[in-house]
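Data availability (excerpt). The following record was deposited with the supplementary files.
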Amino acid sequence: MRSIDEELAEFERPNVPGLALMVIENGDLAALRICGLAILETGTACHLDTNFRLASLTKAFTAMAIMILAEDGLLSLDDKLPRFFHGFPTYGNEITVRHLLTHTSGLLDYEELIPDGTTAQLRDRDVFVILQRQDKTKFPPGAAFSYSNGGYALLALIVEIISQQPFAEFLRTRIFLPLGMRGTVAHEAGRSEIGNRALGYSKNGATFEETDQSITSAVLGDGGIYSSILDMFRWDRALYTEKLVSRSMLQQAFTAHSSTSDMPGNGYGFGWYVGQRNEEKHIWHYGSTCGFSTSFHRFPESKRSIILLGNRSDAGLEAIVQKIA
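Predicted structure:
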């Protein structure tokens, strides 16, 4: 069986995309490994403050934004789509915010509905337009689980509608700045900059090619945040506190509202998979996109966490997590 060092050796070779790995014990840093390159073309190395695209680790932040608005009394998790989107097709009449958070809405997969010939990047509003053109769901809302990036795009729009702020600005003012996550950003081309940015890559034979953006990379609610391993350490710490929302609200986020999911043995909360590992509660998520792989595993009973951020697709992070966990 390969050791952790052998697994990490792949990222420590010359001229390969990088990896940031952090292990947290009892709320404190226990181990840190940062290796490889953030930008191959310039030989820029990964550092503690290198910002990787989080991909679906973003969903926990989108869910947090919704929970903040719920605790502000501005929305209810049981509000239905017509409250926010006037003229939405009737199939959305019974879809609630809670259904969107837990992937139990039954929404069709918007990625499979993108019109042929589309070349411009989609944004959250474009996802809404695609879903607005549909006339059915996969199943009655609440009846089953079906992972839905489109649901999280709708949640980002709900944040904008209720807060009367751009989604990226709400995240910045209500989550990132209060937690000291000053390098973290929900990136909008032409409107925000990513400091210390890592570019995304994919393996092509014996070499790597840049695959930093895809047609869906500009959708914010499901995967558009960039962050560093240092800022994610701050995020992990905050999830043990009531800095953003109450403990009772956090408990809802970390509870499996669907007993099953697309990950065997796990249910799904609000932006988190929820299961058991080594007889301990396991709250986690992964992220995978055209040029990035990410993984975040929390064991709150023992206050242990494992965070991995990589700027290459199909990075094989789960093998590393298994050995550490």
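Summary of structural features: The mean pLDDT is 96.
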